[in-house]
Amino acid sequence: MRKLIFGRILSSFFSLAVLIVAVFFLSRLTGDPAALFLPAEATQQMLDNFREQHGLNDPVIVQFGRYVWDLLHLDFGQSLRQARPAIDVVIEGFAWTFQLAAITTVLVTVAAIVIGSLAAYKPGGIFDRFASLVSLIGASAPDFWVAIVAIVIFAVNLAWLPTSGTGTVWHWILPISVLFIRPFGLILQIVRGSMLQSFGSLYVKTARAKGVGNLSIIFIHTLRNAMLPVITVIGDQAASHAERRRRHRDHLRLPRRRQADDRQHSPTRLQRHPRCDHGHCTGHLRHEHPDRYRLCDPRSARPDLRP
After folding, report:
1. In degrees rounded to 5, what are phi and psi of residue 242?
2. Is 142 in the same domain as 274?
């Protein structure tokens, strides 16, 4: 047992090391971080200041060594977008992510079990065909595409639902609906297949011969024995909900950002950051929060750079 535990721990550390190396070097393949992070209107001086401030002028191997050293000391760096520790940003969003994942998992589990069980009771019927079609569409639909389409239709065009926030129940409808579709289709297929196998068992035939009601046969006698593969899939989908929630977060905020940009600011406007003491802040240009995310022009604070 000790050898097995030691082997698992060692393999976990190896996987973690490979993941750290892959994340660091693959992120460098996307291009110059300064050019990607700063807007197109940024001057060359701003780009140079950004690289110098974040150590991007050092060799890549030096940057990687500093990155690993910080990880060993549990220093996960600063969030460039929010100018505060990255771990605080993650912890702050984890509570909402957990709530959304828990609500979606409960709704998906209940709906998939009920509909899948009823569909398997009369295979080949109208309800079974309809449930099979819905599950196939749901399992095949890419959730990131569904999120964008849902925003365009229900939030932008129809203006029925907000795109972000947690103020009311209406704020939860769009993200829960998007996260609901794919796992619902997958779990529904598993429930239906498992129930079909259980309905052919001798104990089900015996229960029918004794005159047991249909609902009792479905949800008491058969469902308990068909839940083992279903529970396995539910656990896997529950773990995936958190990752899907993180991926969809930017999609669900996109229209509001664009509307704020159109209403209040010009896309080429550069303003001074209120927290910047040196006059050439390298924060990302964000128009919906002008008091937090502004890009400073270094020429406004340094006399030698003024025209």
Report:
1. -65, -40
2. no
Nearest CA-CA partner of 106 in 178, 173, 184: 184
Comparing C-alpha atoms, which of 260, 296, 256 is closest to residue 278? 296
List % helix, strand, coil for the chain (3-state, nearest 5): 70, 0, 30
248: nearest Cα among 131, 117, 146 = 146
Distance CA 225, CA 163 (A): 41
Q: Supply the DSSP symbol for 85.
A: E
Which amino acid makes up residue 151?
I
Residue type for 146, please?
A: V
- pLDDT tens digit string along 2-53? 888 888 888 888 888 899 899 888 888 877 888 888 888 888 888 888 888 8
Residues 254 and 276 reside in one and the same domain: no
Q: Which domain holds residue 251?
A: 88-259
pLDDT tens profile 236-259: 877 776 565 555 554 444 333 333
Contact 280, 272 (CB under 8 A): no
Domain count, the chain: 2
Location of structure tokens 């400073």:
296
